[in-house]
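Reader question, answered in our methods column.
A reader sent in the components of a multi-part assembly and asked whether the whole thing could be modeled at once rather than chain by chain. We filled in our standard form and ran it. Here is what they sent:
COMPLEX SIZE: two components
ENTRIES:
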Amino acid sequence: EAGVAQSPRYKIIEKRQSVAFWCNPISGHATLYWYQQILGQGPKLLIQFQNNGVVDDSQLPKDRFSAERLKGVDSTLKIQPAKLEDSAVYLCASSLEGGNTGELFFGEGSRLTVL
Amino acid sequence: AQSVTQLGSHVSVSEGALVLLRCNYSSSVPPYLFWYVQYPNQGLQLLLKYTTGATLVKGINGFEAEFKKSETSFHLTKPSAHMSDAAEYFCAVSNTGFQKLVFGTGTRLLVSP
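And here is the structure of the entire assembly that came back:
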């Protein structure tokens, strides 16, 4: 079974530029998450989707971050304009169930460096 | 609000020695507790979880953790370290099952020959 796929794996941009990350969850997984992992910190949830609807985006900086999950499958996370403090690894995870029993499966992450 | 404290950003052990990674949590309701492992340039992988029932939880790769409510702890142990255990370990807490995990800052385990 294929795991959670993310691209690109690495991205370097200048501040104020824009960037987009793509995630393809495990086939059939209804729930998709984006986490931000800053160096030296644990992952922090940015947004959670259930199929193509947003369940929780309370920690998403909506002035610069946006995410969508069209057709309830793959998802895109966009940052525009990027700031230095956005340098982090962006992890995508998916789970089969949307309730409280579905284990999260993580992708390898997309590492963003903002100069 | 929930939170997790992992004592020690780095832990060094010799191969064959006991591994002990500490995790203390704060939760206003009975928590769900998790340990994840992250190998270099890889995503997080679930090691073990505590939901309800038996307080000693066994996971993959010989790891286990014990939920101690009185100490608000969920320390991770392994009797004998192997070189392949070198990785970063994250403790996480949730009061809603697998949803909305709150992670600790992680502990990097170094294993020397």
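What stands out: The mean pLDDT of chain B is 92. The radius of gyration of chain B is 13 Å.
Send us your own complexes using the same form.
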